[in-house]
Amino acid sequence: MQFFHPWFLAALATLAIPVIIHLFYFRRYKKVYFPSVRFLKEVKDETSARSKLKNLLVLAMRLLALAFLVMAFAQPFVRTSGVEKYSKNLVGLFVDNSFSMNALTEDIPLYSKAKQKARHIVEAYTGEDRFVMLTHEFQGKQLRLVHQDEALAMIDEIQPTPHVHNLKDAQERIQSILRKETGNEHIYILSDFQRSITDLPVSADTLSKIHLLPLQSVQEANLAIDSAWFDSPVQLLGQASLLKFRIRNYGNQPVEDARVSLVQNNQSKPLGTLRIEPGASVVDTARIVVNQPGWQEVQVEITDFPVQFDDKIYLTFNVNARIDLTVISTDRIHPDLLTALQSLPSANLRVQSLNNINYSTLAQNSLIILDGLREISSGLSNELQGALRQGSNVLLFPGEAANLASYSGFVQALGGGEFQSFEKNVYPVTSINTEEFTFREVYNRVSSNMRLPVVQGRYLKSRGGRLGEETIMGFADGRPFLSKLSAEGGTLFICSTPLAGEWNDLSRNPEIFIPMLFRMAVHKKQADQISRFIGRDEIIETASTPLSAEEVVHLSKGGPAGQDYIPYQRMAGSKVILDLKGSIQDAGIYQMTLRDTLVGKVAYNYNRKESDLRTFTLPELEEAYGSAYEIVENAGGTDFESWIKNKYQGKTFWRWFVAATLLFLLFESLLLRFWKT
């Protein structure tokens, strides 16, 4: 027999008190004078013997009552399983509260049943033990050891969440917290064990006793909008953009008429129906036409029951009202270039001379054109590299008799090749790359009689060594006339010939020159993130810079009375980086505001990780993890708490000792009341 609180056994020393009282108890006798005591001697001897026996029995009852009371406080028990190494238990619980746990079993959600079982587990241990109570949120208050009462309070607060983590991450997080103290490690994972998140290690952990408690319901079929994306990285005002979306059937039956609809800026229109085979996916397309500039809200949805958290996908994107352009030239801008840029729709043109450059606004431009500079100074090179890192594009037309070392220094810093020499000769451009964004879908077809530029000389340049350059237009010998070099955030376009008319007739060819400038101005190295997923895309970049430390970007949804968040934010150049740190809980369109001015919109959707509702069955869990984990098959039984107590606390006897204490006190009372001496 062992004791949970063996130090209480020291109280057995109090057994000496009744003994001392008994030994030093002297009854005072009252003298009564009789003429003769001859007849009282026999009565006295008989009464004294009965009194001593009664006192000994009362003493025994008191000693036994006190001893059993002390034993009850020490809580004796007998182990029914292996011997534990430490007297204190460290208990870790992971309660799966993801959306899949909303499925009903016995008319209550699975997560409610998991909460009940978690309470039974915590209550089966003692107040001396410590607990880690973890859910999918991984909140800061959950990442520490707490007492029994606090663990029970945390269980009561559990609600379904859109955040999803793999079970391996949850197990490792619990183990890292438990091992901050010394004790017997017991871990319980209560989940429906979806295949998409069940990635537990198959090898046994000798330091922890890990139990898997599967809670499962009837399997439901599910249809989900998996993702959505634009065919082109840039959406233009008044032009149709192709929005593609993928719908996946996670059930084992075909879906005959999956109705799909689209909502654009609060206006809904049906897209038709789809047939999707079991376990398959279908990619469909919707045409999006934007007639007003600014931020656009789009929602694609399907009709599907009963699982609905993944039936909608929210999207946002921005169509700029204007295109900011800057031309930097030595003397004056090339007139054909000026005319072409002024003809671009929504163009906001700035012309700056080499000696009067406003460096503070360079990074705000969509396209920076270097027109005929004889050299690129180190200061200008650094500023242009900074603008490229922040997403601006640069178009380089070299000047006549250019300083090749300065040009090479600028281009090579971005991973491009070296400018080598200039050769005079007539070179016709013979190819145009219509697969690259600059000329993609500009022409219905490229005919053999299409007039391409002809140059009277060109700069020879080696190819980029780090990332290489992509040829947009090229000569017959394979050298590029116009090439593209991807920088960190933007793109550098390099023409191998000066723009001046005596060297190059590109500017006199509007069917190529004007579309080329427009596409370069709206070109993006990467498409904007039009949709985000809760718990996965926690970082947001915005180009709006607060004027002071007190000004912060707000993230809000649902108007003045809706949700409003102030995310953690830090400056990175001219941009603000927002870190949500798990604060977003509801899917929808969120507005970013600074000083009550809209600076952007972001679309957050529920994580699709749990769209596949397939779970591990009990036999599959046994086969996959039975050797490393204890799988509790009767997790739904009413004797679950008793099972835990018998397993790790053993069979307890303190109730029996309390009952014995009361019984001995009752015997004492009966002796004192009814035994007359």
Task: Report on the architecture of this protein.
The chain is an alpha/beta fold and 677 residues long. It has five domains: 2-79 and 654-674, no CATH class; 89-219 and 614-649, Rossmann fold (3-Layer(aba) Sandwich), CATH 3.40.50; 223-320, Sandwich (Immunoglobulin-like); 323-522, Rossmann fold, CATH 3.40.50; 532-605, Immunoglobulin-like. The strands form eight sheets. The protein has a nine-stranded mixed beta sheet with strand order 17-16-18-19-24-23-22-20-21. A hairpin with a 2-residue loop joins strand 11 and strand 12 (267-276). Helix 2 packs antiparallel against helix 12, helix 3 runs antiparallel to helix 4 (148-156) and helix 3 runs parallel beside helix 11. The longest helix has 34 residues, at 41-74. The relative contact order is 0.12.
Write the layout of secondary structure elements.
Layout: E1 2-3, H1 16-23, H2 41-74, E2 76-78, E3 89-95, E4 104-105, E5 108-109, H3 110-124, E6 130-134, H4 148-156, H5 167-178, E7 184-191, E8 208-214, E9 223-230, E10 240-249, E11 255-264, E12 267-276, E13 281-289, E14 294-302, E15 312-319, E16 323-329, H6 335-342, E17 347-353, E18 367-373, H7 378-389, E19 393-398, H8 404-412, E20 419-432, E21 454-461, E22 470-475, E23 480-486, E24 491-495, H9 510-522, E25 532-533, E26 539-542, E27 553-557, E28 563-565, E29 568-572, E30 575-579, E31 588-594, E32 597-605, H10 618-625, E33 630-631, H11 640-649, E34 651-652, H12 654-674
Parallel strand pairs: 3-6, 3-7, 7-8, 8-33, 16-17, 16-18, 18-19, 19-24, 25-32
Antiparallel strand pairs: 1-2, 2-34, 4-5, 9-10, 10-13, 11-12, 11-14, 14-15, 20-21, 20-22, 22-23, 23-24, 26-30, 27-28, 27-31, 29-30, 31-32
Helix pairs in contact: 2-12, 3-4, 3-11
